[in-house]
Amino acid sequence: MPVFAWTGTTISGEVRSGEMKATSLQEVQDRLRRQDINPSKVKKKRDPSGFKFGGGVPLKTLVVFTRQFATMIDAGLPLVQCLELLGGAEPHAGFKKILAQVRADIESGSTLADAMAKHPGAFDNLYVSLIAAGEAAGILDTIMNRLATQIEKSAQLRRKIRSAFSYPTVVMVIAVLVVVILLYKVIPTFQSMFSEMGGSELPAPTQFVIDLSEFTQNNFFFIVGGLIGSALLFTWLMNYRPTRAVIDKFILKAPLFGPLVRKTAVARFTRTLGTMVSSGVPIVDALQIVANTAGNMTIQKAILYTRERISEGQNMVDPLMETAVFPPMVVQMIGVGESTGALDVMLTKIADFYEEEVDVAVDNLTSMLEPLMMVFLGIIVGGMVIAMYLPIFTMAGNIKG
Q: Is the dihedral angle over the CA atoms 297, 54, 3, 127 positive or is it negative?
């Protein structure tokens, strides 16, 4: 999600500035106005590398901090003292510096939520919004514990998805490396041997592999450049909104990975929304933040559409059903929770159910992909090896005859 640098003026005339993660410039301006800040300048920050390696705070570090912070607040320690103690014992250098800056801002009269909002690399919109709700309701320790649980669940979900996609990725990388080694080193040895023997025309599969090897050797750097260019183009397409929308829609309908992605999205949506609703965040604001953390533009559009209809006075069920993104059972359970006044409880139950569904889907997908990837690897590598041995088998048969 892009990061915007902003400068604005409060009602009292104080000039403030900071950074905020958002999907658009308009969203940043709307959120600042809700915080009684009149934005004077909002500009999207550009990442010079286009990639982000280790720019944020590790989830484990954030969970430990959140749990410890909740315990200290529950014990009655002032915010400044909590941050001083936690910052002094923090092993992560970057996060230690952030905590020092947050403490300095609070000492200057800022709220905890405003101070944390200046560091989107550590505290995202969900975190800041829940902290603001906790400060307003006087239940900051409870909110911090909910936040820690939310982060832990998100980390577990992310690990499950990684495990599902890591196996085919590793197999594909190994297959490419093996093929490159065969074409660049092994096949030329066979080619020299066949040339020295001379005589008969080579079988069609053998000739094809030899031609492919020669092409690879003659155009090796062009091929490598093409692969790197393709990877960069794919990255750009994933960050370009029109193509990203098409790709995300296709992913949801993909035969193998589509159901897993959809279940993951439902689990993330219900878990995050349930946490925010139970913490007292207004449903319209909660849906805006949940949409920003959806991870899929099709699902994000569905959530934003629902938010728009709710702001016009409709209930939550009808627009969710219209989008046809979420399973009917999920929408019906949300409707039951909405009508009984136990929406947060129902959302949490849905999240628990779908997180278990993700576990089952990952296990099934892995067990299905393992033999398929082995067959794929065997066909590619085994086919090349057999093609190179065909002339040898032919010559052996001729000698025997």
A: positive
